[in-house]
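Lest this sound abstract, we let one protein speak, letters for residues, whole numbers for local backbone shapes, and leave readers to judge:
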Amino acid sequence: MINLRNTLIAACVLLPIRGWAQQPGYVISGILPADTVTYQVYLQYAVSKEEKTIDSTTGAHGKFVLQGKVAAPVKATLTIVSAYQAAQTLPFYLENTRMTVQVKDAPQSAAITGSPLNTAYRKYATYLEKPEQLMQAVSAAYRNAPEEKQKDPAFRDQLDEQYAQAVKLQEQLQYEYISNEGDPFFSLQALKDIIRHTPDPAKVATVFSTLPAAVRQSPDGKLLAQKITIARTTAIGAPAPDFVQPDATGKAVKLSQFRGKYVLVDFWASWCGPCRAENPNLVRLYHAYKDKGFTILGVSLDRKDKKADWQKAILTDQLSWTQVSDLQGWNNAVAKQYGIEFIPRNFLIDPNGIIIGRDLKGEKLAAKLAGLPATNK
């Protein structure tokens, strides 16, 4: 949902640790080349995964002003649009202070003054440049590939491996940043990012414990502590957290009712392109191993107003295994319980209810299933 308003009012989504909260609000003064003609400036940031907030203004003669107030520092983008050139976007952190954004060539290289947070952000961003370029290249390769190639398991496996290597490099560089720079705000942001992917929540917990107490006890710090706990409960070797959700007919389905089988808990949605592209592989493996004690339990992150799309995708993709959803989108209770922040994601559970694999796709999933002893249940 898009909200257009002149004054931004945001949820408290990031950490106030520099005393900026006493500021009355933010004032962004923009300076562009003097010969810049009339243009639009858009300030945008995400309140949640499904809602964005936008403020906008019209600039002329190389100047513009945006002002308002945020509840806490938040990652934002400033986009400049004119009739004579493509839209250009500047990523930055919005905080309640007076800041100047001076653009000489392109917003991406703009100089931001008056904002200590953005001075620190520029240094943190240098650590992420290489892995972000690699991730963008992988995404572009998939997006630009013909539809038939997108469905090719070997092609997707190759891109998945490339993306995994980029994530591994990013994690390495983020830990280096924490060790070398140690800015409390961005050290916390780095750990929040790492916990989304890492198979080693214990390391995140150890590094988190070295941050200042004020950071750890902040709203964002407490949120990260919760995510660490979730990551530990869903790590390989841990008992899979049980849950109950309704299937498409409203019947309650419990994870533990599948005890005695190998179960792949698959988080997906009808609107998720990579999820839908992986479904033919899941169909193939389901039919190959269903008589050997393997099944799949799909958990959809579709919303209530998209229930028909969910049901249609189940039929179109021929997903003959059990599907459940509370139709709350990203607020799906099981997705929160398992710490799901992106899809597709999955967890492979053994007959005793122990997690033995996660994020297995393509040939990696096929190889894992091929190596499992059959069960008669």
Summary: Confidence is low (pLDDT under 50) at residues 1-22. The longest helix spans residues 116-144.
